[in-house]
Amino acid sequence: MKRLNITLPEELYQEIESIPNKSRLIAEALREKLEREKKKRLVELLIEGYKATKEEERKLNEEWGKITLEGWS
To answer: What global pTM score does this model have?
Structure first.
């Protein structure tokens, strides 16, 4: 465990003032926020990857479509 000295806006502190274990609350909130950020970044990377391979996938699908339909017309 590491000890931190943090500063909060007064109105935010007022909301958590009565909570007995503020450290646990803050740790859980940070974990949740960091997890959301990781997922958001992963989605962004997946979208970039799909966009980058979109044209290649289209060409492959066209080629496979021609091969698959050979002899059916």
So the answer is: 0.64
Please tell me the total count of domains within the chain. 1
At position 36, the amino acid (one-letter code) is R
Domain that holds residue 36: 10-69
Task: For residue 49, tell me if it sits in a domain.
Answer: yes
29-65, pLDDT tens digit by residue? Answer: 999 999 999 999 999 999 998 888 888 888 888 888 7
Q: What is the DSSP string of 2-41?
A: --------HHHHHHHTT-S-HHHHHHHHHHHHHHHHHHHH
Name which of 41, 43, 42, 15 is nearest 29 in CA terms.
15
> In residues, how long is the chain?
73
Does the residue 5 lie in any domain? no
